[in-house]
């Protein structure tokens, strides 16, 4: 929010919205700056600031002010008020983190998993890492103010449950939030993995761009959409699932393969990491994982490079459809297969620019992910802090403190 902006009366009247001004400022705000940016009077700022200080949501920057001296001129978000816990899970691995209240990662770990082991097995490992992090950081479960979990499957955003996931055996309709509820009294955000990745890339790397598409090329093929700065999930949370769009009949000159979702000829059944492993194995190459496929491609093995170029063409076709429909400013490509940039990106760009409208590609950028596999963690951390610090939650929290709090001078 730029200096001098006068916001709506609804926002000006809200302590929770005032906190948002402090969250948006990396160096804190003085009361004069808060007056200017909010449009509130100094008296109103003093009243709301007192409530936010009493709730330990803000802290004075001046250390002397904490010892009973003159109130500080500058205040900032209390990043140590609590912690948040994050688990970014994929088909074959997960990254788990503990973050402070400005979404900075304090500790993290990566573990190999098999998502088909089911929710009990995977989430118990997540919980174990959560407990270890809290113990090492000297924190208790009562200090956990929010949890974020993402999964490699379609998520009903309202219920936080996975719905008919193609690869997540045993996860359908499992209540992930309820698994953690006996241990932590806090909100639990459940999100589709590629949505979290898109949000992380947007907030940390492309914040100056209102619309981006994140394309994840890993075991499967998925896309996350950020429109007007917010995740676009569609009516039921299924938006952007391009991996299961069927190609035109015989588009590759071969019989349509069976996809893991049960349909024939899906994009993922040709271009997903699991499909490339399948096809290279069928050609007699010694591959058992996506890492093996990447190694073969980087070594210039003919079969691997041919299949990778075919995958780039197929992915470019799907992305071009999104470009024509959504007209995003930036396409970000991440996931394990993005490591083979030289083979993938040229093919994707060529197809996108050939099949998309000139106006839609005039300023389009197609770039690799800048967050080195941590886009999901960063996205989840910001989704959780946005929920914890939502206007409604903060107003409810400070509402109980509105009596008997003396405004700061």
UniProtKB/TrEMBL annotation:
Signal peptide stretch: none
Pfam families in alphabetical order: ROK (PF00480)
InterPro entries linked: ATPase_NBD (IPR043129), ROK (IPR000600), ROK_cs (IPR049874)
Family classification: Belongs to the ROK (NagC/XylR) family.
Protein name: ROK family protein
Originating species: Luethyella okanaganae
